Every structure is written in C-alpha cells, then in structure tokens.
Amino acid sequence: MDDHDLSKLEKGIIHQSVPTDASSQPTLKPARCGRTLILCFDGTSNRYNEKNTNVIKFVSLLQNDIPDQQLIYYQPGIGTYTNPGIFTPLTMKLANVLDEAVAWYIGAHITGGYKWLMNQYQVGDRICIFGFSRGAYTARALAGMINKVGLLPPGNHEQVTIAYDIYRTDTEDGYTLGDGFRDTFSRVVPIEFVGVWDSVSSVGIVRSHTLPYAASNNIIATFRHAMALDERRAWLLRRPIEATQGPQ
Fold first, then answer.
1. T6SS Phospholipase effector Tle1-like catalytic domain spans which residues (predicted)?
2. Res 233 pLDDT > 80
3. Res 143: pLDDT
4. Neighbouring C-beta atoms of residue 136, cutoff 10 Å
C-alpha cells in the first residue's frame, strides 16, 4: 500500500483518542438477559376465592413487580372461562357446566396462554409453564401447540385460530400443514420448563382424545410431573407424559 492509498484509507476512518485513565473508559451496555415468562393454569372450576388452590398459592410467591426480569400469567380453570358478554346468566352457567364436563372451551384455554406468549416473548426469554389437573393438560397442550405450529410474532391475533385448528388436526396432512405454517409465519422457540401435578385429560369424557405433542414433546428442556398414585376415580385417571430423547 503506497502513501496515496494510505491517505485515502485514513480519510474513511474516524479516529478516537485512547483514554489513559481507566475510570474514563466508556461503559458498555450489557447484553440483554432474557426474562422468565411464567404461565400458570388452574384446575377444573378453580379461580381466586376464599379457598385458593396450590396454583394461586404458587403465583402468590412469585415476584410480579420486575417486568424486565419476570412476567406472570395466570389462567382460571376449566369451567370458569366463558365470556359473560355473549351469554345470559342461565346460558353462561350451562356453558360453564359443559366446559367443566367435556372441556367445551379447551381451545380458548390453550389459545389464551398462546396469545399472551405471542405478545410477550422476546429472543432469549425462558418459558416456564405450570398446571394443575385439567390445567396441567392445558399446559402440556400449549407446549404441544408451540412445537407443532411455532409461536407467532406479536399482534397476529387473526392467525391464532388458524394455528390452533392446524395444531389439533392429528393427521399426516395436519403435521405437514403445521410444518409449513411454522416455517412461514412463526418463531421456533424452546420451552425451558414444564411442571404439572395431577394431570388429567382436558378434552373431557365425551371428546376424549389426545392433542398432538401433549403426551410427548421434544422442545421441553425439563419436564416434571407430580402424580397422585393412589387416585382411583375413572374421570381423574393420570395422563403421564412419554419419555423423549434429551433431558426431561
């Protein structure tokens, strides 16, 4: 490189004097540390009242005033999740009974958590999902939906119903659609932890089937399931998860 080339190069460089005092060194902004996003799903007919469940007691122990580090979502249980704006008191009661008996609104429970995650998740965040009874199954199904169709970017509310319809389609075509939907629209995100206790099927007695990836899910880094081993009631039969490769 001759003097002419060196002169041209120097014109394109912004020179900065190097401080000799260590205290005057520029402070670098630390890289963003991911937040912990915690979702808690309560059991059948459970919500905040004078006799709170362990889910609510667990939520009460979580610090909820540090949004730059931790965010918390709580969802009341199956049978409490109808929209009062579209029901009379009598039909709302009937809707809640149907939801409690056969999980009529299971899709609303799953997509409720999905929408919250969709709008809150940022790269680097850690997703932790907890649930009790049918809420435990909802937690597992939410993780399954994220596996199959991915997590939509914030604001894509119109797409959520389509994503759920693809998720619950347990056929070869459904899995092909899921792959295409995830690759086209969604983010692929890992799930740090799923913790459930007394997990029972959330699809009810009449509509009994297993939603995709609710029984086995390889995007969950750590899964823990506490079970009541002596439970004998048929409608409360345990729904254990199946082992997959990797830490579970």
1. 35-241
2. no
3. 97
4. 30
Q: Report, as an integer, the average pLDDT of 86-104.
A: 48
Residue with tokens 């890289």: 31
Distance CA 132, CA 185 (A): 31
SS3 179: helix
Q: Please check whether residue 193 is in contact with residue 225, taking contact to mean a CB–CB distance below 8 angstroms.
A: no
- 25-69 tens-digit pLDDT: 444 444 457 999 999 999 766 656 677 788 999 999 999 999 999
User: Which class for 193: exposed (0-12), middle (13-18), buried (19 or more C-beta within 10 A)?
Assistant: middle
Which residues are CB-neighbours of 228 under 8 A, at least 6 positions away?
A: 198, 238
Q: Where are the alpha helices (DSSP H) in 48-170?
A: 54-60, 89-102, 106-120, 134-149, 157-168
Residue 16 — pLDDT band, cuts 50, 70, 90? very low
CA angle 200, 166, 158 (to 5 degrees): 105
What predicted TM-score, i.e. pTM, was given to this entire model?
0.73
Strand order in the sheet with 191-197: 70-75, 36-41, 126-132, 191-197, 220-226
Kind plus residue range of the DSSP H or E element containing 176: helix 172-185
Q: How far apart are CA 144 and CA 139, in angstroms?
A: 9
Contact between residue 35 and residue 126 where contact means Cβ atoms under 8 Å apart: yes
User: What CA–CA distance (Å, rounded) separates 248 from 48?
Assistant: 31
Report CA-CA distances (Å) from 33 to 128, 149, 173, 189, 219.
16, 26, 39, 16, 21
The ranges assigned to domains in the chain are 33-236
**C-alpha dist (Å) from residue 29 to 21, 32, 33, 67:** 20, 9, 11, 19
**Class level of CATH domain 33-236:** alpha beta
